[in-house]
Amino acid sequence: MSKQSNLKVLLNGIIKENPVLVLILGTCPTLAVTSLAVNGLGMGLAATAVLLGSNIVISLLRKVIPDKVRIPSYIVIIAGFVTIVGFLVQAYAPSIYEALGLFLPLIVVNCIILGRAEMFANKNGVLASACDAIGMGLGFTLALLCMGSIREILGSGTWFGMRIIPESVQTMSIMTLAPGGFFVFGCLIALVNFFLMRKGKKPKQEAGCSGCPMAGKCAEAAEGGCK
Amino acid sequence: MKFVKDFLIPVVVLTVICVVVSTALVFTYQATKPIIDEAKNAEANSARAVVLPGASGFEEVEVPADIEGAVDAFKETSGMGYVVTASAQGYGGPVNLMVGFDANGTITGVKMLEHSETPGFGAKLAEDSYGAGYVGKTASDYTSVDGISGATITSKAYKKALGTAFELYSAASGNQVDISEVVDEPEEKLVTYTVDDANAALVPGGVTKYEQEVDKVKEVYIANDKSAVTMVVTAQGYHEEPLIRLVVAMDPNGAIIGVKPVDFAETEGIGDRVGKPSYLDQYIGQTSTDAVDALGGATVSSNAVKKAIDKAVAGFELVKGELAA
Fold first, then answer.
1. What is the CA radius of gyration of chain B?
2. Which of B190, B163, B191, B192 is nearest to B178 (CA)?
């Protein structure tokens, strides 16, 4: 992975390795906050900011942090960034802070961020890690924005608060509830898979042995990967 | 060296990371706290002005701590009114209402603050258009505003919070107000009858037992003046035992006079709603069971009742000759 150009790393995250729709990471915040497009966008940008910060710092510290304490170190760093981003959002975008509510502090345990730290940032240079963070962050943001838009338009008849569907049309309230979230999520995954298949590119479903925390102890990794 | 490499370095590194991160947090907190506080204050003040139009500034008023659901109370600095916040338990969590009063205790505005009600149902009460319905109401007539159907629990919480708001207004202003209570509609109870009681209730003139067997009907009684027939019919409800047992009374034209439950051991709160008068009385005047819909959530019990009454309808054809036309 370290051989790829930085641009390719950046673009990878948006579609081919889209964290939400291809790697299926971070499903919980994805389903929870996307009842409105603006919430999806806010959550995506907040997570991107955290991801960028943590990826850069972890990449910088990758030679300093001993293997034994790497996960606690990552979590402390990520939690620090999340809290800082939380303060900033609360101060400068209070309405988004309220809409995201509990899910903003929960970015700490968003597996995209820990996943990228473990899979990418601790093996690659600062610039590549920053590109990876931006790509993954944008992929996450786009997926959330997409889901939020679909759910808001169908469920509330609005988009970013603007009325799209006239009020006389009965909206599908279920789209703003959990089942609608799962439904749109499933449809989007299917759509992305369809396009990736048609282009002849098998969607990359597994992160490979490099991303597996057990790789060091796993016999199959030494033989070239899981069957 | 092994000790240093295995234990000391990880501990030191982790500690340093924690210290650095904590320091960064302290600085961010210090930097953003005034902005956050100011934003919160400004938002609260502008929200208060929303429910008390024309207000310029507010000062907090101490209210007795024993008012349940009280959050805060503010007096408009020029004395034009009060803004209080009251809370009540809704469906998904507390429902907080900010209510503005003019100096006489008339509502000038209601705004639902944070809530966790279901979108599309309880959350409809958070819309400003619903709160606008309370403008101009006083402590005596605020309960007359309708709730929103499908959001009964939230509607009740809304009124309860409003009641608390009037209490707060009363405490803050010193004006005594009579607050009308929200009256719960009495819950309908399932009343079962004995066959004799049901006959007496359905046919006031008295009945005589009809001694011949009638297909599918357990017992048949003919009114003494031959103006009606009552039949005891059964069907299996939600549980295998006991069967649902009903007394069905019909007039000489085959129209149902009334249906009373004798045995009705359906699930409480679900199937047993079918045995209550509000459902069974829908059959009054019907000559068949086609026109009465099953009760949502109680399909099995509803269909059992329908089946039992169908037996009575079929049985009526066999005994109608006994009645005075």
1. 33
2. B163
Query: Does A64 lie at the interface with B, CB-CB under 8 angstroms?
Result: yes
Residue B121 burial (CB count, 10 A) = 18
Q: Which residue of A has its CA nearest to B32?
A: A91
Count CB atoms within 10 A of the CB of residue A87: 20
- Whether residue B14 lies within 8 A of chain A, CB to CB, comes out as yes
| B128 within 8 A of B111, measured Cβ to Cβ | yes
Min CA distance, B137 vs chain A (Å)? 29
Place of tokens 């996450």: A140
Min Cα distance A195 → chain B (Å) is: 34
The model's pTM is 0.53
Give Cα separations from B92 to A85, B95, B116, B130 (angstroms).
Answer: 28, 9, 5, 19
Per-residue pLDDT of chain B (325 residues; tens, 9 = 90+): 677 777 888 888 889 999 999 999 999 999 998 988 888 777 777 778 888 887 777 888 887 777 888 888 888 888 888 888 888 888 888 888 888 888 888 888 888 887 778 777 778 888 888 888 888 888 888 887 887 777 788 888 888 888 888 888 888 887 777 777 666 555 667 888 888 888 888 888 888 888 888 888 888 999 888 888 999 999 988 888 788 999 999 988 888 988 999 988 888 777 888 888 888 888 888 888 888 888 777 888 889 999 999 998 988 888 888 887 6
Question: Strand B256-263 vs strand B94-102: parallel, antiparallel, or unpaired?
Answer: unpaired
DSSP β-bridge partners for residue B59: B75
ipTM for the assembly: 0.71
Under 8 Å between Cβ of B105 and B112: no
Task: Establish if A173 touches chain B: CB-CB under 8 angstroms.
Answer: yes
Interface test with B, best of A68, A97, A98 (most B CBs within 10 A): A68
Strands (E), chain B: 58-60, 70-76, 81-89, 94-102, 107-112, 207-210, 219-223, 229-235, 244-250, 256-263
- Given strand B94-102, what is the order of strands in its sheet? B58-60, B70-76, B81-89, B94-102, B107-112
Q: Which two tokens stand for residue B302?
A: 């509803």
What is the rounded distance in angstroms from the CA atom of residue A166 to the CA atom of residue A169?
A: 6
